[in-house]
Amino acid sequence: MRIGFEVYMKVRRPVAQVFDAVYNPKHLVKYFTTKSASGPLKGGTTVMWDFADFPGAFPVQVKKSVKNKLIELAWRAADGEYNTRVRFNFKKLGPRETKVIVSESGWRPTPKGRKASYGNCFGWTQMICCLKAYLEYGLNLRKGAF
User: Fold this and answer.
1) Residue 130 vs residues 22, 28, 65, 99, 143: alpha-carbon distances, Å
2) 47-57 burial, b for 16+ CB within 10 Å, e for fewer?
3) How far from each other are the two terminal CA atoms of the chain, in whole angstroms?
């Protein structure tokens, strides 16, 4: 059995602005990573993400990045010594509306793998809610959340 999920949200901003808010570390730290992001999500690179509310930086491998369309990442699964695959798809719905779809897959089909996937599903849902609040209202929903 393959373990994975997909979550999405519409953001009332142009696709280029939404893509940049995920790709660009100057924006990412204002609503998601909260402590640091070492570089842009450029394909073929590895960046370090550090969360002020969950201390300890960790590597994020950027497998692919297509401007205004796709960002694909790999990172260590919480339940073991292997990676899962994360995909951000950006769909232009209109001149000022974008659908952000986040999917993650690759966990081992074990109780621990399933539990780890549930945690990440929560995390990515929270991330796109924070993205929307940041871009549409200038708010940082993570501040004081954990």
Assistant:
1) 11, 10, 21, 14, 10
2) bebbbeeeeee
3) 32
Structure confidence at residue 53 (pLDDT): 82
Interior angle at CA 131, CA 129 and CA 137, nearest 5: 95
The residue type found at 61 is Q
pLDDT at position 144 is 80
- Distance of alpha carbon 95 from alpha carbon 55, whole angstroms: 38
Instruction: Please report the domains of the chain, with CATH numbers, ordered by start residue.
Output: 3-137 (3.30.530.20)
Q: Which two tokens stand for residue 135?
A: 């871009």
pTM of the model: 0.95
Q: What are phi and psi of 70, to 5 degrees?
A: -155, 140
Q: How far is CA 101 from CA 10, 20, 35, 36, 80, in A?
A: 9, 15, 24, 23, 25
